[in-house]
């Protein structure tokens, strides 16, 4: 069954302003789905709408067949959606361990166990467990943010521009970590500016333009499409 279905969602920030203008996307079990598109197209807004941080005025969102459209962010989190924002996604003055612990807010008795699982998955975090998050490198911080997103044991993880600001080499390492995470059984919905690299590791992708999915395809097909390349990938 399709895990996430977003159907004809209209949403925005003000009372009247519409940013998403009938956005429809879906994510199947086991997939990595990437959303690309121009600045201001509404990519982050779409992830926020899925996470329950922006309310859908029209349309519907289902997870595992259950309608979650009316649920707030906490409700979405409880039903298995985890959102890793692009910016300010770690608490700089808290330690790595503290960042992980507070991210398991919904399951206080499982905090320690889940933190240990995060350390097994990402040994670098175990080495840095007492370090303040602001002392981590950009790539390490993104791994921490992703590990924090896993502390609720989600069914789906949303990543907003996980490689933003990283060097090409560090970005490649992060993409490898995303593939590994997906192969461990977690579906991924991400927004990326590094379109070619992101589509190369994606099952499918969507091009979001002016609040709507203008085209979609398998990762490799979308990366090779002349129109997509001309518009977003620099020819
Ligand atoms: N908190 C907010 N309040 C009001 N308007 C907002 C808010 N966040 C975003 N917007 C507006 O919504 C539109 C879409 O923004 P969004 O961040 O979803 O785009 P994006 O596709 O993620 O762009 P980018 O590639 O720059 O990250 C923009 O016009 C933006 O100015
Ligand atoms: Mg954005």
Describe the structure.
The structure is a single chain. The chain is of the alpha/beta class. It has a domain of 162 residues: Rossmann fold (3-Layer(aba) Sandwich), CATH 3.40.50.300. Helices cover 37% and strands 26% of the residues. It is built from ten helices and ten strands. Strands 6-7-8-3-9-10 form a six-stranded mixed beta sheet, sandwiched between helices. Strands 2-1-4-5 form a four-stranded antiparallel beta sheet, covered by helices on one side. It is globular, with a radius of gyration of 17 Å. It starts with a strand and ends with a helix. The mean pLDDT is 94. Bound molecules: adenosine-5'-triphosphate and magnesium ion. The site of magnesium ion (MG) has 3 residues, from helix 1.
Which terms would index this structure?
binds adenosine-5'-triphosphate, 235 residues, Rossmann fold, alpha/beta, six-stranded mixed beta sheet, binds magnesium ion, 37% helix
Based on secondary structure, the structural category is: alpha/beta
Instruction: Return the average pLDDT rounded to an integer.
Output: 94
Largest sheet properties: 6 strands, mixed
Cα shape: globular
Helical run tally: 10
CATH topology of the domain at 2-86 and 156-232: Rossmann fold
Low-confidence stretches: none
CATH top level label of the domain at 2-86 and 156-232: Alpha Beta
Portion in helices: 25-40%
Q: Give the distance, in angstroms, between the N- and C-terminal Cα atoms.
A: 36 Å
The CATH H-level homologous superfamily of the domain at 2-86 and 156-232: P-loop containing nucleotide triphosphate hydrolases
Main sheet strand line-up? 6-7-8-3-9-10
**SSE pattern:** EEEHEEHEHHHHEHEHEEHH
Radius of gyration: 17 Å
């Amino acid at each position: 069954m399709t895990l996430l279905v977003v159907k004809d969602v209209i949403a925005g920030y003000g009372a009247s302003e519409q940013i998403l203008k009938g956005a429809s996307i879906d994510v199947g079990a086991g997939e990595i789905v990437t959303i690309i598109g121009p600045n201001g197209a509404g990519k982050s807004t779409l992830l926020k709408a899925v996470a329950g941080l922006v309310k859908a005025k029209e349309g519907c969102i289902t997870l595992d067949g259950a309608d979650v459209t009316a649920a707030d962010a906490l409700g979405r989190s409880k039903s298995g959606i985890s959102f890793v924002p692009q910016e300010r996604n770690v608490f700089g003055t808290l330690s790595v361990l503290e960042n992980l612990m507070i991210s398991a807010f919904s399951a206080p008795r499982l905090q320690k166990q889940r933190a240990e699982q995060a350390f097994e998955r990402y040994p670098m975090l175990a080495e840095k467990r007492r370090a303040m998050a602001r002392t981590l490198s950009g790539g390490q911080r993104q791994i921490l943010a992703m590990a924090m997103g896993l502390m609720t044991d989600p069914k789906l993880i949303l990543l907003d521009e996980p490689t933003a600001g990283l060097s090409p080499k560090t970005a490649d390492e992060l993409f490898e970590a995303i593939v590994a995470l997906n192969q461990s059984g977690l579906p991924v919905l991400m927004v990326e500016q590094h379109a070619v690299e992101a589509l190369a590791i994606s099952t499918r992708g969507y091009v979001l333009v002016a609040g709507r999915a203008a085209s979609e395809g398998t990762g490799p097909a979308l990366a090779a499409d002349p129109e997509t390349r001309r518009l977003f990938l620099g020819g």
